Amino acid sequence: MGAIFSRRSSGSPSSPNPNATITEHDRAVLNLKNQRDRLQKYERQLEALTAKEIEAAKTLLQQGDKKRALMCMKRKKLRERDLANITGLLDNVHHTISTLEFAKVQVDVVSSLKDGSEALKRLNDLMNIDKVDLIMADTAEAIAYQNGATNARPV
């Protein structure tokens, strides 16, 4: 019973597939997502630093040091400008990730359509129109014969 709840030493079902290939598309999306994560981390750091600058400016104003408080506010303004730039970059990264993922979906759809078209073509090659006409004629003859046989029998 212990074997039911224990992990196998040969590997778990969630282990990566050794036969899986990493495409250029996968690598590009991964790089963009890593860059997005770094930008978000930097954004959080800037927000924290901005809040600290505001607190420092308040403290300095209470202490009567207007000059240093003004410097804190200038640094805060620079960080806010950097935050605006990061927001624009994050928007671009999100848009690019979405565009790449949608392009992958489009490629998959076109590939499926191509496969379906080829399968339909192979099926149509198996049933050419002359064979279908011949089968339909044979079927019509068989039906006519059966109708004749049914009508010829006295009841």
From TrEMBL:
Residue ranges that the Swiss-Prot or TrEMBL entry lists as coiled coil: 25-59
Classification via InterPro entries: Snf7_fam
Classification via Pfam families: Snf7
Positions with biased composition (Low complexity): 1-19
Keyword Protein transport among UniProt keywords: yes
Main location: membrane
BP terms from Gene Ontology: late endosome to vacuole transport via multivesicular body sorting pathway; protein transport; vesicle budding from membrane
Matching PANTHER family: CHARGED MULTIVESICULAR BODY PROTEIN, CHARGED MULTIVESICULAR BODY PROTEIN 6
Protein name, as recorded: Charged multivesicular body protein 6
